[in-house]
Design goal:
With 288 residues, the protein is an alpha/beta fold. The protein has 10 helices and 11 strands. The radius of gyration is 19 Å and the shape is globular. It binds NADP nicotinamide-adenine-dinucleotide phosphate (NAP).
């Protein structure tokens, strides 16, 4: 039997509709959520991601501003802009699109963002809080994956969750969030030997590697739930995930498609975080 397709696009639309109602109510009380996105340089993929975020803000009637800065922007110039936005009452969320040009220290930039406005949840303070289970902001991609699983009534507690990839953006926070839900978690990475033996253990497999066709049908067990974060552009222009979708879906019980799976959920979660930070900044209680 073919796997259930976990439709992230549809779910993201539902979440955005819920948020629209919340935003309309917030506006009545004088809170108009505002997101600022900063893009440095002209990486084409980053431009597409920033455009998607801007479009989502427009759709949600979230105030948004995009700062497009040239590749030659200095670290000091970027820090100065962030300082200004940290102090701006109308800016509730600040997102610096990664990767940054090589001459800019990414860590320093992330740390300069006010943790209360860190809608990506990359600031060490927010990462620390997440790791001890007191995070009020959650990183968008893993948070989107959790929504997909929970809203499809997929049990996490007590199950074996394998995360392929250990990036700070996806793999590591995903593992933390699974632990928080009482899953048994294994994280695989480039040095993992016999990846197939590890992935075969998974009840839930999240693959966030960025290699087309990495996860093949002989690397999974029957009935596994596969969440494919990978976004890989083939030479023919087609966008695919890390899993060999057509074959894997014959064995899995459920699977996210690429496109239309995790991607739209990531954007929806960014909107959710912007609404969250706006509410919390208004009440000034993020650190309560
Ligand atoms: P990344 O920073 O490049 O991390 C990739 C991870 O995969 C690294 O931890 C790496 O291990 C690991 N890895 C590489 N080869 C491997 C292998 N053969 N077996 C097991 N692990 C391996 O990437 P990322 O930012 O996490 O993104 C991963 C993918 O997800 C990309 O395709 C990206 O475009 C996509 N993505 C999608 C969304 C979305 O919203 N849909 C969001 C974020 C990312 P080491 O750490 O040991 O090198």
């Amino acid at each position: 039997m073919s796997a259930k397709i976990l439709d992230g696009k549809k779910l993201a639309s539902e979440i955005k509709e819920e948020l629209k109602i919340e935003i309309a109510q917030l506006k009545k009380t004088g809170i108009a959520p505002g997101l600022v996105v900063i893009l440095v340089g002209d990486d084409p993929a980053s431009k597409i991601y920033v455009d998607n975020k801007k479009k989502a803000c427009e759709e949600m009637e979230i105030n948004s501003q995009v700062f497009e800065m040239p590749e030659c922007t200095t670290e000091e110039e970027l820090l100065k802009l962030i300082q200004k936005l940290n102090a701006d009452e109308k800016t509730h969320g600040i997102l610096v699109q990664l990767p940054l040009p090589k001459h800019i220290d990414e860590g320093k930039i992330i740390e300069s963002i006010d943790p209360k406005k860190d809608v990506d949840c990359f600031h060490p303070e927010n990462v620390g809080k997440l790791s001890i289970g007191i995070g009020k902001l959650l990183p968008c991609t893993p948070a989107g994956i959790m929504e997909i699983l929970k809203r499809n009534n997929i049990e996490i507690s007590g199950r074996e969750c394998v995360v392929a990839g250990k990036s700070n953006i996806v793999g590591k926070p995903m593992a933390m969030m699974f632990l928080e839900e009482n899953a048994t978690v294994i994280v695989a990475h480039i040095k993992t030997e016999n990846l197939g033996e590890i992935t075969k253990r998974a009840d839930i497999l999240v693959t966030a590697v960025g290699k087309a066709g990495l996860i093949k049908k002989d690397m999974i067990k029957k009935g596994v739930v596969v969440v494919d974060v990978g976004m890989n552009r083939l030479s023919n222009g087609k966008l695919v995930g890390d899993a060999d979708f057509e074959n894997v879906k014959e064995i899995a019980s459920a699977i996210t498609p690429v496109p239309g799976g995790v991607g739209p959920m990531t954007v929806a979660m960014l909107m959710k975080n912007t609404v969250e930070t706006a509410k919390r900044l208004y009440k000034n209680n993020l650190n309560d």
